[in-house]
From TrEMBL:
Keywords: NADP, Oxidoreductase
GO terms of molecular function: quinone reductase (NADPH) activity
Protein name stated in the entry: NADPH:quinone reductase
InterPro entries referenced in this protein's UniProt entry, alphabetically: ADH-like_C, ADH-like_N, ER, GroES-like_sf, NAD(P)-bd_dom_sf, QOR-like, Quin_OxRdtase/zeta-crystal_CS
Enzyme Commission number: 1.6.5.5
Boundaries of every Enoyl reductase (ER) domain copy: 11-322
């Protein structure tokens, strides 16, 4: 038996239960991983609340790092004893041990700790596809990135600096703004005390930005469109404040033939070759020191509910992990 977090119904953090589970032997195409650390991400909240439906009862968590204990029939991607990290479904990373599809597991370089691996996979791979594939950024580009002091945001701030991209970030307090600025944001806007559209216009001398990366959703969506220059791209990749409201396509044409996309990591990493290439890019930028993973909150696995309380209250910065 192993300890894990399970939910039998959707709802608030109180629906998360710390229970014993039977793990068993890995099946064909699976590997059993003993976690050293598990990542916490806002998408976990979406599954817990039911915004993203899944069959119940269910586990939570899409990110972890640890050691392969056993492999099932036909597994070629990893071997027993390998240090591995992953980001992806099925949910269930909030656990001491689990069986995982081996096609999602990536060998973790020795230079990267388990804690860093667990904290960076989902967020780091997200930044990788946002910056390198959704809209391939180049030196001198100017972008707007919401929630710049969060886990994804701090990685994005550093990666943008390494690419020579001018990143305008938003954050909800002066303290968070300072974190994003230190990480590499060219400018940071406190959206609770400033109108971010007006500040973007001021910072860019009226030119606006070529790309907006928005994981906030409902509260920022329309105003984000106002920050884009003609032919700019709106990248909506999250719903922290709630789903994006219905809107008319005329909102895009009236602002200068804007583009919009709603990407997910799992579409970009669906092919094993793409996943390996994305991970290699992430591992390289972390190993070089250009991107440092800021783990600002560490919780015991049994305290996962408190982690969600803090996350939803926007009390967290950087990355958060659970330690079994």
């Amino acid at each position: 038996m192993a300890k894990a977090i399970r939910i039998n119904r959707t709802g608030g953090p109180e629906v998360m239960e710390y229970v014993d589970v039977e793990v068993g032997e890995p099946g064909p195409g699976e590997a059993r991983v003993r976690h050293a650390a598990c990542g916490i991400n806002y998408i976990d909240v979406y599954f817990r609340t039911g915004l993203y439906p899944q069959p119940l009862p269910a586990g939570l968590g899409m990110e972890g790092a640890g050691v392969v204990e056993a492999v099932g029939e036909g597994v070629t991607e990893v071997a027993v004893g390998d240090r591995v990290a992953y980001a992806g479904r099925p949910n269930g990373a909030y656990s001491e041990v689990r069986n995982m599809p081996s096609a999602l597991l990536l060998r973790l370089p020795d230079a990267i700790s388990f804690e860093t691996g667990a904290a960076m996979m989902l967020q780091g791979l997200t930044v990788q596809y946002l910056f390198r594939r959704t809209v391939p950024l180049k030196r001198g580009d100017t972008i707007l990135f919401h929630a710049a002091a969060g886990g994804v945001g701090l990685i994005a701030s550093q990666w943008a600096r390494a690419l020579g991209v001018n990143m305008i970030g938003t954050a909800g307090s002066d303290e968070k703004a300072a974190l994003a600025k230190a990480a590499g944001c060219s400018h940071v806007i406190n959206y609770n005390t400033e109108d971010f559209v007006a500040r973007v216009m001021e910072i860019t001398n009226g030119d606006k930005v070529s790309v907006v990366y928005d994981s906030i959703g409902k509260d920022t969506f329309i105003k984000s469109l106002d920050c884009l220059r003609p032919l700019g791209t709106m990248v909506s990749f999250g719903n922290a404040s709630g789903p994006v409201p219905d809107f008319s396509l005329a909102e895009l044409s009236s602002r200068g033939s804007l583009f919009i996309t709603r990407p997910t990591l799992f579409s970009y990493a669906a092919r094993r070759a793409d996943l390996e290439a994305m991970a290699a890019d992430l591992f390289a930028v972390v190993a070089s020191g250009d991107v440092k993973i800021a783990i600002h909150q560490t919780y015991k696995l049994a305290d996962a509910a408190q982690a969600h309380i803090d996350l939803e209250a926007r009390k967290t910065t950087g990355s958060s992990i659970l330690v079994p």
